[in-house]
Amino acid sequence: MITVTAVPVEHEDLYALLVEKERALRQENQGTLHRRGPRKRGQDRWVHVRYKGSIRLQKCLGGIVVAELRSGTPSEEWQLLSSFVGFLIRHLREEIGTITLSLASVES
User: What is the pLDDT of residues 6-26, one digit of tens each?
Assistant: First the structure.
């Protein structure tokens, strides 16, 4: 599991901006990351069209977004990570001040 924490520059609501951007891209059939599963307030699950696994997003205080990336095979998590961080940088670069990665070993 890889945890990505995105902290806004100002008091932006990064979660709302992420959801809005994903929705716009989905309507244009241009996105590779898509929302999937039941909708819960302040939480989402995204999947990639090509890479296995999912990204669980959670809205936190101060506009911070925490995302947990999980893949069926941990050796392929880097693909989800690359795609998600690329999404953040392409679409929300001006609103994000810091992106932090946390690597957690998965015990069998």
Answer: 999 988 889 889 888 888 888
The residue with tokens 């809005």 is 20
Q: List pLDDT tens digits, range 59-101.
A: 998 889 999 999 878 778 889 999 999 999 999 999 999 999 9
**Can you give the pTM of this predicted structure?**
0.84
Q: How far apart are CA 42 and CA 61, in angstroms?
A: 11
**Which residues have CB under 8 Å from 103's CB, separation 6+?**
2
Q: From CA 22, how far away is CA 61, in angstroms rounded?
A: 21
Decide: helix, strand or coil at residue 101: strand
